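Usage

Read records sequentially. Each one opens with the input sequence:
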Amino acid sequence: MTDRYLFLGDSVTDCDRQRSVKQPNRAEALGYGWVNRVATELLAKEPTTKVWNRGFGGCRVNELLTHDWCPLKQTRGSDFTCITLMLGINDIWYPMSDHEYPDIKRILAEFDHLLDRLQPLAERLLIMEPFAIPGTATMEQWWPPLQEMQTGMGALVAERKLAWLPLQAGFSTQSSEQPALWAYDGVHPEVLGHQWLAEQWLQCNG
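and closes with the structure output:
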């Protein structure tokens, strides 16, 4: 059976992919970021593999399912070898930009609903921890709600016995000396950030 990998998320996953291209494995449909790097490794090992990037720039947790996120016309259960989800940073960014504290309880309820929809569709559902570091777009006030959301997401993933890939601590440590090469604005990865994310995914799925 052909392995199928679906990547879902926001702009950190999207990376300017060409949304009009629906076919798997097309470079322009994979974006310029970490998903492209992962796909390159997967396809080098097994050319029959199918990889889709369905990241949506600006997307929040409750918005993903309103987009054209599923590349299959019909789903029957366990259609994908692995669905990878990294989402939530915009649920912190948007309210904080309006000087409002994010509604973490609501975000986590929406996240749990999203897991409920996605879990039956994949043999493996992998959740990547949303993260941020100090940068031109982030503020110190982000850290308490971000940590609360990360902790809550991790707990929900554990309850469902799904795969959880922690990123915050590692990204913070690795980027500490040259943060501009990792995520200049604190949210969107740069060259080293994308490479590190790809390496983390590949190690988790090795």
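Summary fields computed downstream for this record:
- The mean pLDDT is 97.
- Residues 143-159 form the longest helix (17 residues).
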